[in-house]
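Subtilisin-like serine protease: structure tokens wanted.
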Amino acid sequence: MAPPDHALWPLETEVIGKTKEKEKLDTDALPATYHYYEAAGRRAVGNPAEDMPAFLRRELSLGDLAAMMRHLWFAGAKRPAMPLHSHVAMGREITVTERMDLHLLWDNKGKLFIKPVPRFLLDPAFCRSNLQCTDACACYSPPVERCRGIPRRVALGFLYTYACLVSSESDFYVANEKRLLPCTENDKPLEWADWKILARELLRMYEREPNIIHPRFLRAELRLSRINIIHRFTSLPLFNPYLRGRHNYGSLFRDNLTWLTGATVFVALVLTAMQVGLATERLQGNAAFQQASYGFTIFAILGPLCAFGLVVLDALFHLVKDLPSLLRGPRSRTAPGRTISITKPEISA
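Answer:
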């Protein structure tokens, strides 16, 4: 029995050229190696050609973002991705990332994370072989093998965002300048005419069947600060951000003391205003104002101390968490088809 239409790879446009050797076609489009994390939190380096299904599952994984799907309304509206030239005009810095879950996330410092298009996703033959559901797919009953539906929908949604990002020739120039689009088999940039054909095919695909792409990509740009807030309250351990922007304890204290100092100045202004109010005859006998002044004075004394204590506790928590790796020192071991590295961690706050 043939798989249903939604389980097929719908794209047919060839933009990177064809190779003559079938064996080269399957492996040449893959990266040299890929990094991933094991269950124990150890970073491992694997060979994508030795276990292609595992590589594709990790390469096209949305990570913890998949568990936050129903909360993504808080991080971004449902709309297509803005073209690249608009992001540049807004002063955003395009930062290349190979993590699918960071694609189109932006932070308050003007940094926009974009994942480049892997070469294998522009190879229709490769995608039909490795992302299209087979007759033995778990979509059927009884299931025989792991379903490729989610990785395929993620891949199609990811490519759809590029049809929106690279809509004009100026966007195409920016994408090539930032190396967001792969080269052809001859290591030359893609042709603008070929890209237009592929982009229009992606638009027709989405208009014909919107559910063919993963719902994550219906909300293109997501605010990283709000993703961090969602992650702090929906995952374990609690209060852990999705992506840390700090890499040492100095930046932790500097960033937190900056807002703490600003809050202290605001509290001082309020206390000064209350002190002036207490000096007036009209408010001296006002019991409600006296009670509010008393409560705010206690808050002004304990609030900054508690906030600073939380910053110190956060630093101590991460120090204790990283201590085993710091004491163990760098070492590595190898396993069939992969290398597992245990090194001194990058201290993050």
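Residues 53 and 130 are 7 Å apart (CA to CA). The first strand starts at residue 34 and ends at 37.

Cheers.
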